[in-house]
Amino acid sequence: MLRLRKIVFYLFVLLYLILCPLTLLYAFGYLLKPGRMSGLVKTGLISLSSLPSDASVYIGNSRYTERTPTVLNDLLPGEYDIKLVLKNYRPWMQKIPVQAEKASPLKVLLVPKQFQPTRLWPGPLETILPLPGTHFFLLKGGARLGDLWGYNWKTEEGWPLVLPESSLYEAKPVTYFTVEGSPFVLVCVRFQNSEKFLWIDLRERERPFIDVTRLFPEKPTWVDWDPHDKREIFSLQHGTLNRLDLVSLAIFPGLVEKVRGYGISGKTLDLLKEDNTLERHNDDGKYLATLAPPALLNPFVESPLLEGFFGRKEFFRVKIFSEDYGLLWGEKGELISYLPVRPLVSSGVRGLEFDPPNRLLIWKEHALGLLTFSEQPEVFWLWENGKNIQQAFRVYGGSSVLLRDNEEMILLERTPYGDPQVYDLFEVQKGSAVFYSEESGKLYFLRPSDGSLCSAEILPQR
Amino acid sequence: MNFTYSRQHLSGRERLLERLLEILPGATSWSLLIGMTALSFSKPILAAALIIAFNLYWFLRLCYVTLFLVFSYIRLSLERDTDWMAKLSAVDREGSPETPSSEAIYHLVVIPVAKESAEVVEPGIAGLASSHFPPQKILVIIALEQRAGEAIRKGLSEIREKYAKHFFDFLIILHPDGLPGEARVKGANAACAAKAAAAYFEERKIPFERVILSCFDADTVASPDYFSCLTYHFLRCPDRNRASFQPIPVYHNNIWEAPGFARVLDIGSSFFQMIEATNPEKLVTFSSHSMSFKALVDIGYWPVDIISDDSAIFWKAYLHYEGDYRVIPLYVTISMDVVHAGSWWKTIRSVYKQKRRWAWGVENFPIVIRGFLKAKKIPLSKKIRHAVKLFESHVAWATWAFLLTFIGWLPVLFAGREFSSTVLYYTTPRITGILFHLASLSLATTVVLSLSLLPKKKIRYSRLKRVGHALEWCLVPFVVTFLSALPALDAQTRLLFGNYMEFWVTDKKR
User: In this predicted complex, what is the ipTM?
Assistant: First the structure.
């Protein structure tokens, strides 16, 4: 037994000494090429996944044995025409470059040849008021508060915010304030020649709103709150930042003076002061740090790019993305990053959406771009053929973008290997907003023919 | 060689060396785990390459040990029906002058008891009484701790009353608590009993060379063939007084009563011993085993301050005889209890503590290395072989399961953009997956062997129970990681920080 054990031991040692380097070479993409030009060649691969999965894969005209998701291994460096085909879906084609020892990952969202919208709520409705990051949106059926409905897209239930017997039924909503991830809406309504402010909790059916008018002696320039805070909101009135307590309906005035823009994240307030200082305060208004002195921001006043920018005293929304990174977003769509302070877009930014881990999807009237957070933040314009881009949503983990361009819904498939693929999907009601939820994979929109609320599955259920 | 097998009472330099060697296994294990984790984040390409190389090594080693497990099983099956008494008669008939007659051989069975009840001890005594080898040649000593409760003492006295007539003699030796220089370890109790036995044999003019000692755990049930098989191998061994004899431990006494995870783990221990049995050059005594009583007396009995007395006694003898000591594998089984403490949770705790105690065998490493440095007659190659095996087996025990189940996946799970765009990012899990799939063939072999090793007579359960037992092997990744590798790492960490363990008696219930 001992001798046998020794023989087997040395055999296994030999086997390991042979197999280990071969396995490692294979793992790194090396392949033994047979034939006249035999030898070790470097290869690369394409990792393909699609939604829905199980699509046939073609390399050039040859059909690959496996279906998606799959990995096309042992490819010699070069360009490969890859095509995905699945019944009832539009074929997907792309030229994919393969480099030695590198992987080319592709995550493809296949687009149905025909969408089958589901009618959820009868029309006619005027528009949808989205509450991103929540299970809710508002349905607006007319000019009165009584025409406003809450809607839970998760349970597909709708309910009126006020009943006909309410005195506020005929009030006319003027302004809406919402915060991403918060199920609350602050609505300013005009009622009997005065303005009232209503704090609406969309999770609450019995008593969906409270009258918080006394917290707003004057109309605020802006109202903002942390989505996780149910008690306190912050309003800006004539350059003064106030903290408002929604439970006791108490105002804590003059939290910080001479403010021209602000944003809140947790217990942190980042403020753009009137002297162009960017400061960090806590939610009690206590000064914590200067993020950028006036000297850093003032040069932009002289910049042709932002000429007159700081002279106009316009309001700036401050978007805080992390402790070290935020954006100043002006009323005219200017975008300036802090930290470091750097002008990014001179005007026209209509919307932005965080694209984890370190990017931001932004859109203007005609263009859709990506802003990458880094020490040198910069904007890369993905697509500049929009007519009038109103809304944009990240789809399938950001590998695609859904756009509302006028009344057209467009799906833009991002690819690292060339121009994005653009698919016209369908039309929605003119002038009405839409809502997309990555969680349900559905787009909620108003059908042009009858203004009813419909949903269409953009992301097939996995 | 005059070497004190202990970490106590060392001089300054020796103490420092001992301490450094105590630190080494734990430091190596932690360095491997932390280093590979750090590498997975900082240099994922290098980490992935190392993981592939390691996984392939693990797979080939698994194939290698599975092969010898099968060989060992075949040999165990072939020797199962051997008539050892007939073979003994044949040896006696040969009448070789170097070989004593089997009739001149006495057996001493020492059973250390601390808190085990009579219910646990009795089946083992009954097994001894029904031995094919004449029980009248067996001296049974129950080495009882003084701290044992009154109920245990009473139960053991009743056992003695019941079975004494079968044996040469049946003694209960009380081991006083807190003797100077002793720790609360099983070895101290067994040594106390063995000293009493030495006096007993001297009094009766029975030479120690004719006595074979078996030190059994309280729950050990020897097969009826055990003593005849042992006597045969003892007589056939030219250096019989410089040898230990290691049977295959199986855990069948309460196999169907214990929870599945404990069953899987202990069957794994049996298999480990079966594999080890095929390599007598590196075989070390484990759990219940036998040895020449003369050797035991010569080397000064078991260390009285070492927890892992089963392996320590081998190393003590090996160093005492400067390498001229060996372990002879016996392809005969002795049955013990699977850890069972009543509830699942209590059993998990008991299993964890038992495995940590076993893994505390790492305490032998610094002492053995110190001994090797002093032993001039042991060939260097032997020293290196034993030292590497002792060290590597403990480090592997504490690290491999973590590397295979967790750390090996880190480079892929937390890949940055740079690594995730390489071919290696995709091939690493693929290669690992293939190796794991192939390794399942080894697992299937293990399942088949475990089913065929199950006690035939004790089957009280349906075929469904057997299927359930086969499926229990799916618990292997969990069991090996949390109830084997983790306690081993725990033991090494304690040794690393000089936080020495005390003996803890495993819970065993019937």
Answer: 0.88
